[in-house]
Write a structure and sequence with these properties.
Blueprint (H helix, E strand, L loop, with lengths): L22 E5 L14 H8 L2 E6 L5 H18 L7 H15 L6 H30 L4 E6 L8 E9 L11 H15 L12 E9 L8 E3 L9 E9 L20 E5 L4 E2 L4
Parallel strand pairs: 2-7, 4-7
Antiparallel strand pairs: 1-2, 3-4, 3-5, 5-8, 5-9, 6-8
Helix pairs in contact: 2-4, 2-5, 3-4
Length: 276
């Protein structure tokens, strides 16, 4: 069955002795070639700044799973790039516990301010996550962008989740969400895409995604003329489906030309990071 966006399937590196596990292909940039005078070619530099990780799922994936991929990636990037002092789930736990304890024990002003900042960040982030769920229920989402620093046009770095190769199926006949999410993050761990990056100061994060122009989105704002940035460090995460796909379980496939009816939408809030 053809993939949603008609994207070419990524190379597959099967895990030894594991035919049922999800396949992983990590695309590494070619070695930098030096031309005359020892200068790096522009293409080589761009390749080094734009690594890619590809994950191939052996079956159809539900829309709910696609939404989960985007939400979990957003939370992961915010923590890995030092915009959240703790992983999202831990931050929610400690922030709520601090709020409950504050009703009984009076805390220093500095602690109170930190708690308020934490609550504000969590409220904004939870709002974005909830509206992402709405968007994924309204329309197919072929691509998601997480842009850090600068602005949406010229960020310092950004992360692209490419879902064009995903075959969307019903929840009953699709792969389970949890193992797919686990495999995605195992792939990121193996690729080791964050360890060598310099710490990013507290900055703003913008979330954008593609959806059908007539999807009825109300919260996300349409950006008809938006172009994906060509500058700034970029990580692309390509997701696709392969294996024995049940045609009856898959949603109607979209021809590549039909993506012309899909436009970029931008979240109306900029997520502000914070330190403890």
């Amino acid at each position: 069955m053809a993939a949603l966006g008609g994207a070419e399937p990524a190379a597959v590196v099967a895990a030894p002795g594991s035919q049922a596990s999800l396949a992983l292909a990590v695309e590494t940039p070619p070695a930098l070639q030096r031309g005359r005078g020892g200068r790096r070619s522009r293409r080589s530099v761009l390749a080094a700044l734009s690594p890619a990780v590809s994950v191939v799922f052996p079956g159809a994936v539900s829309r709910e799973s696609c939404c989960r991929f985007a939400c979990e990636l957003l939370k992961h990037v915010l923590h890995q790039r030092h915009q959240l002092p703790l992983p999202y789930e831990q931050l929610v736990y400690f922030c709520r516990r601090a709020t409950q304890d504050g009703d009984v024990i009076k805390k220093p002003t500095s602690v109170g301010l930190a708690s308020k900042k934490c609550q504000q960040v969590l409220v904004e982030l939870e709002g974005v996550l909830q509206h992402l769920e709405v968007m994924f229920s309204l329309t197919l989402v072929p691509r998601v962008l997480i842009l850090l620093g600068g602005n949406a046009v010229s960020p310092k770095e950004f992360y692209e989740l490419n879902l064009e190769g995903i075959c969307v199926g019903s929840a009953e006949k699709s792969l389970k969400t949890t193992p797919c999410v686990r495999k995605l993050f195992h792939s990121l761990f193996i690729a080791d895409v964050f360890s060598e990056l310099k710490a990013l100061p507290i900055t703003g994060t913008v979330v954008m995604l593609q959806g059908h122009r007539n999807c009825g989105a109300e919260w996300f704002r349409p950006k008809l003329n938006y172009k994906v940035p060509t500058r700034g460090r970029k990580l692309t995460i390509n997701l696709s489906c392969d294996g024995d796909l049940d045609i009856s379980a898959s949603a109607p496939q979209i021809m590549t030309s039909a993506w012309e009816d899909y436009i970029w939408f931008q979240a109306p809030v900029t997520l502000k990071g914070f330190h403890e």
